[in-house]
Design goal:
6 copies of one chain form a homohexamer. Chain A is an alpha+beta fold. Chain A has 12 helices and 9 strands. Chain A is elongated, with a radius of gyration of 24 Å. Residues 319-331 of chain A have low confidence and may be disordered.
Amino acid sequence: MIKQTELNTLSKNDKIDHFLLIRRIDLRSTKSGSDFLSTELGDKTASLNANIWEGFAELAARGKVGDVVKVEGTVEEYQGSLQIRVSSVRLATEGDGVYPRDFLPESKRNLNEMKNEFNQRIRSVSNRLLKKLLTQIFKEERFEQFCLAPAGKSWHHAYIHGLLEHTLEIIKICELMCEFHSDLNRDLLISGAMLHDIGKIEELSYDSAFDYTDKGKLVGHIVIASNLVWDEIKKIPDFPVELENNLIHLILSHQGKLEHASPVIPKTAEAIALYQADELSAKVNAYKNAVESELKADSNWTRFIPLADTDLHKFNFTDRSEEKSKKSLFD
Amino acid sequence: MIKQTELNTLSKNDKIDHFLLIRRIDLRSTKSGSDFLSTELGDKTASLNANIWEGFAELAARGKVGDVVKVEGTVEEYQGSLQIRVSSVRLATEGDGVYPRDFLPESKRNLNEMKNEFNQRIRSVSNRLLKKLLTQIFKEERFEQFCLAPAGKSWHHAYIHGLLEHTLEIIKICELMCEFHSDLNRDLLISGAMLHDIGKIEELSYDSAFDYTDKGKLVGHIVIASNLVWDEIKKIPDFPVELENNLIHLILSHQGKLEHASPVIPKTAEAIALYQADELSAKVNAYKNAVESELKADSNWTRFIPLADTDLHKFNFTDRSEEKSKKSLFD
Amino acid sequence: MIKQTELNTLSKNDKIDHFLLIRRIDLRSTKSGSDFLSTELGDKTASLNANIWEGFAELAARGKVGDVVKVEGTVEEYQGSLQIRVSSVRLATEGDGVYPRDFLPESKRNLNEMKNEFNQRIRSVSNRLLKKLLTQIFKEERFEQFCLAPAGKSWHHAYIHGLLEHTLEIIKICELMCEFHSDLNRDLLISGAMLHDIGKIEELSYDSAFDYTDKGKLVGHIVIASNLVWDEIKKIPDFPVELENNLIHLILSHQGKLEHASPVIPKTAEAIALYQADELSAKVNAYKNAVESELKADSNWTRFIPLADTDLHKFNFTDRSEEKSKKSLFD
Amino acid sequence: MIKQTELNTLSKNDKIDHFLLIRRIDLRSTKSGSDFLSTELGDKTASLNANIWEGFAELAARGKVGDVVKVEGTVEEYQGSLQIRVSSVRLATEGDGVYPRDFLPESKRNLNEMKNEFNQRIRSVSNRLLKKLLTQIFKEERFEQFCLAPAGKSWHHAYIHGLLEHTLEIIKICELMCEFHSDLNRDLLISGAMLHDIGKIEELSYDSAFDYTDKGKLVGHIVIASNLVWDEIKKIPDFPVELENNLIHLILSHQGKLEHASPVIPKTAEAIALYQADELSAKVNAYKNAVESELKADSNWTRFIPLADTDLHKFNFTDRSEEKSKKSLFD
Amino acid sequence: MIKQTELNTLSKNDKIDHFLLIRRIDLRSTKSGSDFLSTELGDKTASLNANIWEGFAELAARGKVGDVVKVEGTVEEYQGSLQIRVSSVRLATEGDGVYPRDFLPESKRNLNEMKNEFNQRIRSVSNRLLKKLLTQIFKEERFEQFCLAPAGKSWHHAYIHGLLEHTLEIIKICELMCEFHSDLNRDLLISGAMLHDIGKIEELSYDSAFDYTDKGKLVGHIVIASNLVWDEIKKIPDFPVELENNLIHLILSHQGKLEHASPVIPKTAEAIALYQADELSAKVNAYKNAVESELKADSNWTRFIPLADTDLHKFNFTDRSEEKSKKSLFD
Amino acid sequence: MIKQTELNTLSKNDKIDHFLLIRRIDLRSTKSGSDFLSTELGDKTASLNANIWEGFAELAARGKVGDVVKVEGTVEEYQGSLQIRVSSVRLATEGDGVYPRDFLPESKRNLNEMKNEFNQRIRSVSNRLLKKLLTQIFKEERFEQFCLAPAGKSWHHAYIHGLLEHTLEIIKICELMCEFHSDLNRDLLISGAMLHDIGKIEELSYDSAFDYTDKGKLVGHIVIASNLVWDEIKKIPDFPVELENNLIHLILSHQGKLEHASPVIPKTAEAIALYQADELSAKVNAYKNAVESELKADSNWTRFIPLADTDLHKFNFTDRSEEKSKKSLFD
């Protein structure tokens, strides 16, 4: 990993001597006819606009979204926003030892801790066949992909390791539901939770940006997952057809409604538990992130968030009460 | 096949000496406390109510929906409807050589003619890999199941051989669309048309009645089909991933809308053609059947048909004009 | 409490000498002109049909749904269902010491344990003002009502103490979400969870049956709750307006969507957490109960459940595998 | 009130020596690097763009939307629209005696006439308790707020005194419905009409622009109103609970549908009358205003109006026929 | 008109010697095998069940819904409802001078008064062409049909003269809107109000019951009306195309939404006024009637009303307070 | 017709000496204050941007969208797109003999061939009255309009002769359905297919651009068509009312759903066939065109297409496989 100050800690007039990822790149020209490169450059913590007025010939010819550049310059402010004033720029080379993925946002949770928690849950499954199936599936390269992938393009857990973090949250929520209802089939439900989104490792690309693959758009992660699980089930002799149908049902129905792209709706108690646990994990993550990152200037309200169908409010009562007399309120 | 007069040709006072399928069977008792068997019995052309007042001990104990019985009696009229007055009844035995499936409704088209038309279309596919895939899939027992199955439980083409009849209609509609648009990929579209509903051979049961299987309810014919096709594709070396994704996409998107249980919506010109061809074939068949079979007495209107969201009208202008003076009108 | 065998443990030919609640009562007459009382009678575990042919003059004149009767008779079977053959019946009197509420279904969880868990959560709130508000609200008669009420008329937690059980589940789910997201305001969220359904103590009646009150139908539990909370906030000097608005917002938005009768949709991270936790608790409870109580005879499928928009499937793989050789499967 | 020519009466080349309200203010810079202030300035009749190229240091530092400025300059035309060429500008001071609210659009109806009509309707209520309640609520500062507030942010009656104008229209429509149906409870209906939107005085801010308050977004005017009315009812001894429930029901259900943010739908004849009267008053006002103010140049059609889901047409047959020969057409 | 006591004034044991309309007629048989006629018979005020056990041969053979019978018998009570015990019955003959239409429910308003009000409004139209058009359309037999027809089959104004009563209400509401908005085109709006539902005279049949005609179901009153108006416009030379388009638009868009079967949505201020006025008149009439006629026994709530999507509440506060001490409440 | 190279065949640096249609024209000014004309100019194959910096006085004063100009200049590239560098420009004059319609896109099918196919279908109708009606309607100027008009503004068959091409496709699809179902009334169905969209000749304008007329927006092509057909039916004595109602029903219901602006939904087998045939023809045409014309650079995916609610994918497997080794794949 490269060592450089993170973008979101810089202020006006700070020096830039950074490797950064190209998130947008357009050749434009001014009314007076001179060309310039309009770009957005970032690391895993933030992105800034940068207009490049000179020395961009190589970059204009060969640079594209997802490439890494080495930039020198200064942070400056323009119309209330920070941007980069570029003094020199070049495309990164192999010798630089930097990789686009290092510039993608990633989970704040510790990866090994999450892997341990996940593997502990595989071991906790008492049904021999399900445990065998999970062990077959979550191994080697596929497990590494699963631990690397984001859970979405932009809405929730949209960062490296996000799929693992999201899956763990759902597992824990499902475990709590099994505490409430001892007649839920824990083995089935936990297995379904682990597998429900595994199709996202093929639905999404996350090498240098988060996007949908062709297969992701034409097939979708739900059917990719069901096919993967069926393939692995076929390798296990005597896997009972009822167990197979119910496990596939959990995967297919986990988005809860036909209009959310599930080809069947939940028809078992375990299926409704998985769907609602997924919703809970996803929505709270998404709203929390939006409330942090989308606030309007000098406001406790975000811009309008289409997927929430509203603007969102940040309740930060504690902070403001502290300015006056926190003691009188929280003691 | 058994030889006996078809039910829909009988009238009041005709003798009954028939094998018939049990479509409903309830043990009831009159206010005065005597038990009787209330049943609905039918062949492939019709069903009639029959109350059995005596000699039903064996039938009450062992008979169930989908069994065949031998019935003797008379056709009588009650409250404006025909029913059977039963003089004797017994469960059919092996020696009778009758099978429940012989009592299910079936397509009016000739089976061999349909099979020939279908196989001719397989041969017409010019892409070597798709032709191989189709040949692999439509063979032996699976092809026989495909030719036997209905296309639905009750709405459209809901009769033996209905799936084959429906698939052929779609193929022909798609061929017409290829005439209009030479840039549609005919091989892909025809292959998709052939495969789109093949999952129905596992989604439905049609031994003695048309119903959904457990797998049909928990998984659904769309995902069943995609898994079957993937399994067969894996047996073909070098099957191009683009072709695979696009063929699977045709299957997954053929119901056209998420709320119709397709997990992806049509995203190619071929996919929209298949969806609309399916709609056309299904809806016209369904409306035509409803207009014939659901007319209210002395009316050109049917009862309210929930799937059409209206009552339907039978336009039979020709018939009535003929009674007067057909010549003046159609000459 | 009365001591008598519970209805759901009785079989054909068992004697009945029970106090039972009238759940339906109609005076009918046979074709031959004689009158009889058609009733449904039950205790907290089950309900049975009972036709009363003699000695029902007083009951016909004065008995109504929700009254308790003393019945003597026998359990008999009719068309596959158990019913009561009544030899004598009378309305219960004060001296019998029986109360309609004793015949309503109730939570399987221990009441005192639930009360302790609930009060422990009030103590865990660190914000002084919210703790004061909760203490004011959950006390004396109102707390007893809260602990007694069902959470619904029939769909989920529809039994005595159901509101308390449901609220506790939501609290625990919200606590788990606070573990995932330390920046959620735990005090606000837990307070909202406790208060969100308190309006149900006025929306529902549950003396002798579960039903909506006039106020419940004309106003609804959401607005009843917000008014109650506002009334109690007004008694606390200097309750900050931001805290008030955000707490009321949690109550108003907890059904998540306008079409679910919330007058505002969730606009804070806490509000979305509460809504999704409520959904999770309610839906899993409802599906679990339906899967148990609505199974069709000889089937792993229930009748069609309108609120789930499907029939539901009972996955009881373990049980059946045990019959054969559980060991080979789960070891 | 300030005395100055109204903006909507000015033409190209007219002098500007006006106090105007800042409706938009952005610091921008040209490609050549010089800064300028891009603003939109207006009075109650119109708004014009004004780019300020010099002498804007104080304004850029301290001016914000909702402030009043003193501007000198000329009206000029740019790309077919009028704008202000500014020669000098300064922020208004206390000594100028001008207030932002004086620059907001206001109702064309006479305020005192509307107040008289409204008070006359309070007196016309014959039920003693309702009249007492109305008198309690519509008095002093709250009545002044009610008479000042707009009925919406932008869609209908979105101007000072708009809430009063809108409420009066609904009252008159309801009175007409009482003429048609003598069995409607006039006292209840008129009281509901008066109170239904009173929550808007807290939902909206209208000091220097029309916008939603935090409470407006988190709680909404419907629940604000119900709480206010309940508070006042509690001050009236023996207010019958049926009357209370029905009056609150009118307020809660007045938007008619759950998806319009009413937590209950209309369940009484009075409630449906109030909802439909509100729709009638609101929609006609909104369409009429849109047809006037949103016409495209040289067209009888407006731009697309999202809330109407269409572009709107101005029917001005009379005008055009008059130009030719009005007589022949209307005589 | 026949002179006989109205059905809704009769009580148990009253004599029946009435002409009544057959609203339902079924030949049934008892378990013991004897036939009887089950009928529903009514006049314009009510309908009662009547089982006829003897002397019904002619009636069973020739009687049908919509025929008038002469019945003698007594009013009796059965399971809490009144019914007719028939001693003799015969089909009415020409000589009886009774007509099915005399037994249909009709408006409570005076017909001549309504006709006068309507004609006065035609005279009030100042545009020469529109007045000519209205005069052409509302004359002779068509005007009589218009004054006779109901406005619907069952939901609102579903009684003889209902279309006229409903149209008059809308006219008056529109006139009030013109008072609020002098820039609405009164002539256009009033003409549209008069014509909007005229297609109902062909959409509905109302000779002996209210039902849809074939044309009503296949075409609908909206398009019937537009065609009728166009036909009459063609007879007026120089009718301006703009006026024609706008008047037709009022008719086509008066149901306000595509899903309510309007082929265009309102695009002018007049069109939105007409739609909302129609809604107001229709809904209040429908709810008022439902609240009166659909109340459950001993309840202030009706059964569930599908078109209102709720059960409805009757607020009759005054009545009950009067029983106690009206004075203290309303003085 | 003018003779000039088609725009879509030109490349960078090619000379322009063309008549072109103005598709957009705006007077703009640079920051430095100089005015220029920003235009979009095109022929039937493509449109290019052109900024005109000098000699545009006459054009700025009198030119408008839909006018033809004579342009000299060169093709140049700007930001990756071709545009026109204009050296001189003037409005076309009568003497130039060019007409705006010559610059509109048109069907790729041969016009006379289509006319012949259409007239052949009129002759194939065997019902004398329907054939008479069709002959009356499709003649002289109206037939020319019908053959000239596009079938839509932009979505499907949106080019000159598009309405004829679309109608022919539907006719052929309906003929195929009649092959499947001999009990469909072919005469009725083909007549309905021919007439269903004829209202588009008045709904759309297509002289110099495709747009809606006032009548198109206020009335719509469905009702325009029904009125036209009724007018012509009235000229045919003894046209049976059932035939009239069913034919009008086909026209009115051909958009299949109320929310698609059909005032009635399909209620006959013929009506559902026409609706589904229309959908099939329209959707495949629209998707095919979008897949061709809306591809993003270097992508097999289009931009997001709102009417398809997705981005669309171009499957061009053949082309790419050909580049490598077509033989191995298609032989």
